[in-house]
Amino acid sequence: MSALLIVGLGNPGVKYEKTRHNVGFMVLDFLSKALGFDFAFDKKFNAELGILKAYNQTLYFLKPQTFMNLSGESVAPFARYFQLSSVLVIHDELDIPFGDIRFKFAGSSGGHNGLKSIDNTMGNEYVRLRFGIGRSATQSVVDYVLSDFSLQEMESFHALMPHLQEAILSFAQMGQDSLKDVATALQSRFGINARQNASKQTAQNKKSQTKDSANSLDSKNIPLETHKIESSFSFATNRKGGE
Q1: How far apart are CA 5 and CA 68, in angstroms?
Q2: Among 111, 121, 136, 215, whose CB has the most other CB atoms within 10 angstroms?
Q3: Residue 176, pLDDT score
Q4: Which residue from 140, 116, 120 is spatially nearest to 128, judged by alpha carbons?
Q5: What is the pLDDT of residue 1?
Q6: pLDDT at position 195, please?
């Protein structure tokens, strides 16, 4: 039976549970509940490990407990031990707006210390699921990524979880194919451009409002015309009755 590895990056401990840097952990925790598998600590790899059999494959879900900057010290030994070449890493991404979802194969770490650690220990030929958190205009990068999501952001993030689940399960189905092709297919089907979608939604809302306004105007005109006709008829009747 073939197998693949799905890694969620984050920092261990209650202190970091709701921080932007823990996107990967949050997604895997959601999958654990949605798909019905549990995590258990694996001392050998210093990671929380969940296992699921699906699509005639073994899916390994890994949450390194090394802290972000040393993620590769958990991921690389695990991938080597089980001889896994199909790897998906889920992480936060500063350089794309909040709510954007993008898929990428290989490339640089973009300054992300978790990816940098993985690249240094096992190379960069894996698929990344990049969840946009944007940048802060007032906080340093470190303070920002280690701060909690706002309530509104957390609600938006949770609303996207089923979409992320579908994307990850699609990776599981395609994971034995060329990873470059897999990343391209996932981006085409599951990539989200929040700003573009917002612009489309705004345009649709304006179009809808214009249509509603026209319909509202028509509906106002109909009673007015009816009222005029009824008034005229009533007036004529009154005159006739007075004659």
Answers
A1: 18
A2: 121
A3: 79
A4: 116
A5: 75
A6: 60
* Sign, CA torsion 210/216/221/224: negative
Catalytic site residue 21?
Answer: yes
Q: How many CB atoms lie within 10 A of CB 191?
A: 15
Burial class for 225, CB neighbours closer than 10 Å (0-12, 13-18, 19+): exposed
pTM for the full model? 0.80
On whether the CB atoms of residues 102 and 47 are closer than 8 A, the answer is no
Q: Which residues sit in the known binding site for tRNA?
A: 16, 67, 69, 113
Q: Is 168 helix (H, G, I), strand (E, B) or coil?
A: helix
Other Cβ atoms within 10 Å of 8 Cβ, number: 26
Q: What is the 3-state secondary structure (H, E, C) of 47-72?
A: EEEEEEEECCEEEEEEEECCCHHHCH
**CA gap 171, 4 in Å, rounded:** 9
- Per residue in 172-186, pLDDT (tens digit) is 999 778 999 999 999
Asked if residues 65 and 48 have their Cβ atoms less than 8 Å apart, the reply is yes
Residue 16 contacts residue 146 (beta carbons within 8 Å): yes
Residues in the annotated binding site:
16, 67, 69, 113
The active-site residue out of 21, 112, 163, 227 is 21
Neighbours of 127 (CB within 10 A): 24
